[in-house]
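Q: Hi! First time asking for a complex rather than a single chain. Here are the components, and I think there are three in total. Is that enough to go on?
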Amino acid sequence: MSESVLTARTEPISRARRGFVRRWLGNPWRKPTILATVTWVYLAWSLIPLVVAIAVSFNVSRSISSVNPFSLHWWWSDPIDSLYHDPELHTAVIQSLKLSVTTMVIAVPLGVAFALGIDRWHGRPATGVNFVMLLSFVMPEIILGLSLFFVFSFVLKSVPLGTPAQILGLVTFQISYPVIIVRARLLTIGKDYEEAAMDLGATPKQSIRAVLLPMLYPAILASAAIVFADTIDDFVTVRYLSGPASSEPLSVKIYGAARAEPTPAVNAAATFMLLATLIVAALAYILYRVVTKGQRGGGVTDLATQF
Amino acid sequence: MDPKDLSRRNFLIRAGATAAAIPTLSAILDACTKPGATISGSSAFQIARPDNPVTLPMNGEPIATDTPIEQGATLEILNWSVYMWKYVLNQFIQQQSGNGIKFSGISTFNNMDEGVQKLQSGKVKADVFFPTIDVLGKLVAADLLQPLNHDLIPALQQDNWAAFQNPYYDQEWRYSVPYTIYTTGIGYRRDIIHDDVIHGMDNPWSILWDPQYKGQIGVYPSYRDVMAIALMKNGITDLNTGQDADLEKVRTDLLAMIDATSPLIAYDAAYNKLPKGKFAAVTAWSGDIVAAWGYNPPYTQSAYQNVGYWFPADRKGPIDNDLIAIPKNAEHPRLAHEFINYWIAFKNAMNNFSWNGYQPPQTKADVNALTHEQGLYSKQSSSWAAPTPYVGPWQPDAAVRESDFPIGYREGPLPADVDDRWHEIWSEFQAGVGQ
Amino acid sequence: MSVSSEAQPVRRRRPRRARAVDERVHYSRWFWPSFTIPATIWLAILFILPLYTVVSIAFGTVDPIFRNALPVYEPWWWSGEQFGRVLHDSFGFYRNVYIHTFEYVIVASAICLVLSYAVAYYVARYGGKRKALLLVLLIAPFFISYLMRMLAWINLLDTNGYVNKVMSFLHLTSHPVDWLGGRPFTVVMGLVYGYIPYMILPLYAFLDRIDPNLLEAGRDLGAGPARTFFRVTLPLSRPGILAALVIVSLPMFGDYYTQNLLSGSPKTTMLGNLIDEAVNSTGQGPKAAVFVLILMILVLIPMLYYMRSTARSLTTR
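A: Yes, that's all I need. Here is the structure of the assembled complex.
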């Protein structure tokens, strides 16, 4: 008698408990807790080390493995090693900025022009040229960097290793980014607007300037921002093509210092670079929103699909 | 010909192809001879040995004594990393500020191969370069260095040891001045390996092969030094050997080291990783061990005393000195001479020594006093580090004496094919075979 | 009569040009191709020529003093000596390096894939109001120097660093672990950390484009979430997965700095390290060139696949 009462009481509960998990798994409209957890854990894993690295730059002591706030010692107090006083770190930061801006200014127009041309050009030579452009996009950077080093050492000897070689190399590496981004955009734009403009009497050149280019501004901006960001921490190419100490950008200095005993001044320099890049990115985003007013294709979500 | 072929398009294509072909035609004519090894300069460089001193050929004239110091120059230095104290450098820069001197950092390398590579490829147009003895002959043969004007560097004769007055590798000091002196031995943690243990061993060189310290052994990325230690372990004292039997022993020993102790390669193995406890024993240059205190948190006396140095008691081991030279393509040779004279002057050399740990061969320095005199860097670091003399008394073997040189073993230049074989063995070691 | 007088002005207003590329649009033949000329010349000189130089060095000779590379530009003088020597050593003592490289790249790519797919899927399907914020956080690593991110990990993985502190706090280990001392685990996780942002965004873009109606249809037909995923979502995202895998594994093959920063041991040497070490010593120029060629051959197929998928995505909607 008592047994049956016991079993009668426990059975429905355990069945319900078993069923709970199954029902939870089987509910198509449940909240995606596992995925959400994974995502937020990933974001934490991705960004917390950076917070620590930034915090270390404000350390009081020389230690880089623990955080002891708060001091601007490594930012400008120390007369030899701080970011403000150390000529090595200065030159490195300035070199990084110099390289990125110059590369952006050269690579984006070349790439945009190429994208416009290749999109409308058909035929075998076009396929060949397109092949070369795509090859430069997919090639691992070490191959590109080394081959450029060899070419500047043996063939194009008039180009000195250092800033000139680095700029030439970086543009070669980056030129495919604007091409890809602008072509993707051209695909969504199509030829209708130009044709409409020409039906209304514009010459080809006018229709490009007045109709096509304005529609491409978001893509051009996005590619400029990407080229800037990619170049500012480029490492492989600039290291092989660097010359005198003044041509080593911050990425190379960090690499050299990281394997030795880096002081928090290196973290300070990297944080400074980060700030500069974020400011440029924010400016680019603001411009992007301004330019895409009224166009479909503005907003962060669409920007993300450009990658 | 078909009229179609004469269309404008085809014509342009053919014309373009022909135009492109014309330069290659002349190149083809040039290329009718097989490309060989024709290089400028004498192809046979002299192999210098202590019993075979070498007078290097003069590649042109040194700069004139009355050359003015270049104005507005950016001083370019190509040196090992972590070898020059910024403080002393800054003092030089300030001293020369009247000449508008600029400085944006030292170009560095982590092993001599890399350094020569940077110099040769024209990557760095250095005003001053710091080679080792084994590459000096090659650099002169390849016309990469310029002869020095000794009137501009009086400190050389005044301050340096007699042993360096007319060195075997560069008689008359035509191209180089001595920079620092050091021995190559074993650096070790005195708290893990007691002094008696290592001093009591039959063959202390073999401690790097002791499986007891697996995962705690570090070696330099410098093929000459690590292979020299393998040679010393086998009792072979010719550190420039090209004998097959010797090299084979080195090869098997290096591969055995990987199995036995899984060493790591690090250029800062001795001055940085050893004090931080990452290693128990490392290949070490004496200067690295002397400088280790500055990388040894919490910077107390007891922390400093954990780092020891072993070198054979009879002082018969690898010993050498580094050099300063001026590259041929230096843009500011007069400034370079000024710099060298400044850098080897007694006060500056000792200050630099207090920071980088590498003794300069200074006549005015009393070697016996080094273990109880405090250097400038130690004085300046009083806010965060306990005081320490130039050379800690717990590392007496790390001090170098003039008497060590005649009995020690020098690493000299290797003939190209022998060098090739040394590099092969080193590549094999680096590739981590035998795990 | 009136019709023809109207027709004439129309004809005169459309001037005839040379044969057009597109029928309805009147451009000269060379109009569009001329846009591509600057970039083409640039690539010819600074991309094609360097690759040819690499081949010339790999099949060239050496100088007698420093054993430096002497490139040979004429194909008929090319000698396979350097190539043969390196190939022989590759099957000999470098074999393990190749094995490692493949191991690390495959494992790291697999981890990247699983993790990025989960994150991209979540953001694409369940992002909702927070989508913009999530995307900003995901894009952020692009604007942060790769080296700074590695530097951050060097700080954390130090023997006295926070990782060890947390692990001993949670009693996971009895003594500090030496993370930076030559562990394949550290190198693989370093690769994952470094390259995962490059995978998440393309995957997100791809998953975002999957029509949610298809998933609803699957559900309407009775499939639970798991079955919908395996039967509908996964097959649809296959091209995206392949492309993302290639995007990430290609640079990993040539990576050397992650290994150098997070390990120092010959045991975790990768192919990129062999190349880098060869360049940085005298007399190893030809060796470096040969390794570069070998690397190119090894990644040729993924490269071609990537090129094709990119080309296709640029010409078809």
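A: Residues 1-8, 18-33, 36-43 of chain B have pLDDT under 50 and may be disordered. Let me know if you'd like any chain examined more closely.
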